[in-house]
Structures are given as C-alpha cells and as structure tokens.
Amino acid sequence: MRALVQRVSQAAVSVDGETIARIGRGVVVLVGVTHGDAEEQAAWLARKVAGLRIFEDEHGKMNASLLDVEGEALVVSQFTLYADARKGRRPSFVNAAPPEVAEPLVDLFARVLAETGVPVKTGLFGAHMLVQIYNDGPVTILLER
Asked: What is the CATH number for 99?
C-alpha cells in the first residue's frame, strides 16, 4: 500500500463540475492499493500520516504533525500509484488491486485517520476527479507499507 502525502494550504475535489470535498491547511493523501494489501497496512499508514512531522513548528523546523497543527486531510484513491512504466510508453496497472479490494482499504485508511483526531474528507472512489492541490513548500512524501 502506498500513500503519497502532500502538505497543502488548501485542497478540493470536484466530480462532474461539483465540489464534493474541500479542506484548508493539512494534507492531501493519494492512496494506492496493491495485491496482498490488508487492513494492517491501511491502519499503519493512517497512523503514520497523522503523526508525520512535516509542518513547521514555532522555530520554522519541520517538527509538527498534522495533529499538532490541527490540520485536515483529503484522502483520494489513486490506483495509478502502482503504474509500471518500465517497458514501452503506456503504463501497466496490473499491480493495482481491483476495486473490490482497494475500495474497502481506502475507506479503512480514511476511517482510521479520522479516529486519530484528524478531520477527514474524501474523494469519490472510481470517479473521474479533478483534484485542486495547493502544495505548501512544496512538501511531498511517499510512504509505503
């Protein structure tokens, strides 16, 4: 399971021209699921994101977590995190888990993240989404479990 974490000043997700989720300061988490992933990986990654110290403290050092700054999270499923483009020019997505496996794990990730105390909004699984990200820093970190 992979989580691409981007620190943001704000973010939003739109589907069919309608904004379905919007956050202020916090993180956008693009979540990818592969074959063999289970609840353990989803829960571990969610707790890792909540405690990841990627926000500046009072001394300007990246020493504060999402919980410390009372930030929000926007969780978006992203099967393309498992793209394989080593051969040819068209990526293969055979390493991405099928929707019936991925969707419950992305949902669990969002639920566990919310249980840590982080306000969580989500995209719409399987939909064509427009994700507006104001990457702050920019700070982008890839986590894998």
From this structure: 3.50.80.10
Set 80, 109, 122, 125: catalytic member = 80
Domain contains 67: yes
Tokens of 140: 């982008």
> Whats the size of the chain, residue-wise?
145
Helix 39-51 × helix 99-115 angle, to 10°: 40
Tell me, yes or no, if 79 is annotated catalytic.
Answer: yes
Distance (Å, whole) CA 135 – CA 102: 26
Say if strands 53-56 and 26-32 run parallel, antiparallel, or are unpaired.
unpaired
Q: What is the pLDDT of residues 17-70, one digit of tens each?
A: 999 999 999 999 999 999 999 999 999 999 999 999 999 999 999 999 999 999
Single-letter amino acid code for the residue at 79: F
pTM flag (> 0.70): yes
Q: Confirm whether 80 is a catalytic residue.
A: yes
Task: Count Cα neighbours of 9 within 13 Å in the Cβ-side half-sphere.
Answer: 5
* Residue tagged active-site, from 6, 34, 55, 79: 79
